[in-house]
Design brief:
alpha/beta; single chain; 17-stranded parallel beta sheet; about 375 residues; 5 helices; five-stranded mixed beta sheet
């Protein structure tokens, strides 16, 4: 036994017009079903259309709630509280007061559908399954976004490292401690405010697992500017070397400007290219090296230019000031100066049978 149903008897067709297709409605209105199977099929169709209508209404309600909540964005006290913060839908705005403490590292967040791995500063899953929050109101990532405090501290390493290896541009606003080498991704942008108030400083117990290590590596297509790198005379508790800013053998098109290097038991600005197959290309401008074993050394450089770079030697530490060698080609020094105590001011050297040159010094000087 079955019951004949016309959908027009149950709902106002004008009301359902936005949610139920017209042809489906007209099919239901045609009259009684000819068999029980036809009747069940009809009810299945009605149910399906009503479910679609319900889903659409729910989507409209979710969007309305998100819009309503965004008039008064919910405030989140600290980064860790995101894990207990509910979300009504994608696009909801939140205000983060601070990352951890001190009133810094805050900003605006937005909810997105999906799930992510918490990176400690830019994205984190919310309390509502299937939604996460992500920062939206910044152009540059900062160590403060990952929990760095307001002043130089031994605890800077973790937050600073996360900002330096993040693919987004990094902005440094003060000096920060590092305790082991940092290797940013290719294309990394790192900017400071200026060389006087912004920089990276190696801790006295900086990790040097082998004979040598480095503070900050220079990578392909990078742009570093307006900060200092201080190796802090770290030597691994013995005779190990700590370099400031080395360039790897396959690095191309690096750009380093207004980045000064200090107190290195190894090299300041150095290219570690292949002597037999030079590949390194890049550009230094207005960089200064002080109290390094070698402030500027170019090994295996294919095409490297230094403009307005200066090197200052210190007795008992500095061996050479400008030192192109090891198969380097097309190394050009323009308006560069060197002075102070050192074993040699400019030392051009061929090693292992690999020819060097051309090496050009244009409007440059060495003052003993």
């Amino acid at each position: 036994m079955w019951v004949d149903v016309n959908i027009s008897d149950l709902f106002d067709e004008d009301m359902l017009g936005d949610f139920v297709s017209t042809d489906q409605i007209s099919g239901f209105v045609t009259g009684p079903a000819s068999s029980e199977n036809d009747q069940l099929a009809m009810f299945d169709g009605v149910t399906g259309e009503l479910l679609k209508a319900g889903q659409t209404i729910t989507q409209y309600l979710d969007a309305f709630l998100v819009t309503l909540y965004n008039f008064f964005p919910r405030k989140i006290s600290v980064w860790a509280d995101i894990a207990t913060t509910p979300v009504v839908g994608a696009g909801q705005i939140f205000t983060l007061a601070q990352h951890t403490s001190g009133g810094i590292g805050g900003g605006k967040l937005m909810s997105f559908a999906g799930s992510v791995v918490d990176d400690g500063g830019t994205q984190k899953n919310s309390a509502t399954s299937g939604f996460y929050l992500k920062r939206i109101d910044f152009e540059n990532i900062t160590p403060e976004h990952f929990g760095a405090g307001p002043s130089l501290d031994i605890s800077d390493d973790g937050p600073t490292r996360k900002a330096l290896i993040h693919p987004l541009p990094c902005r440094l606003s003060r000096h920060y401690h590092l305790s082991s080498v940092v290797s940013p991704p290719d294309g990394k942008v790192i900017h400071g405010i200026n060389k006087q108030s912004t920089g990276l400083i190696a801790t006295s117990n900086f990790s040097i697992p082998g004979a040598a290590s480095s503070v900050l590596e220079v990578v392909s297509n990078c742009n570093y500017s307006n900060f200092t790198v201080d190796a802090n005379n770290a030597n691994g508790g013995g005779s190990k070397r700590l370099n400031c800013c080395p360039v790897g053998p396959n690095v191309k098109n690096f750009h380093v400007s207004d980045v000064d290097v200090y107190n290195s038991t190894g090299y300041g600005h150095v290219t570690f290219g292949s002597e037999s197959d030079p590949q390194v290309t890049g550009y230094y401008e207005n960089c200064h090296g002080y109290n390094c074993q070698v402030p500027f050394e170019q090994i295996g450089a294919l095409d490297v230019t230094l403009v307005k770079c200066t090197a200052e030697g210190v007795a008992g530490r500095t061996l050479e000031l400008f030192h192109p060698y090891g198969g380097s080609k097309n190394v050009t020094y323009i308006s560069c100066r060197a002075w102070g105590e050192s074993g040699a001011g400019i030392n051009i050297l061929t090693t292992n049978g690999h020819p060097v040159g051309p090496i050009r010094f244009i409007d440059s000087s060495m003052i003993s």
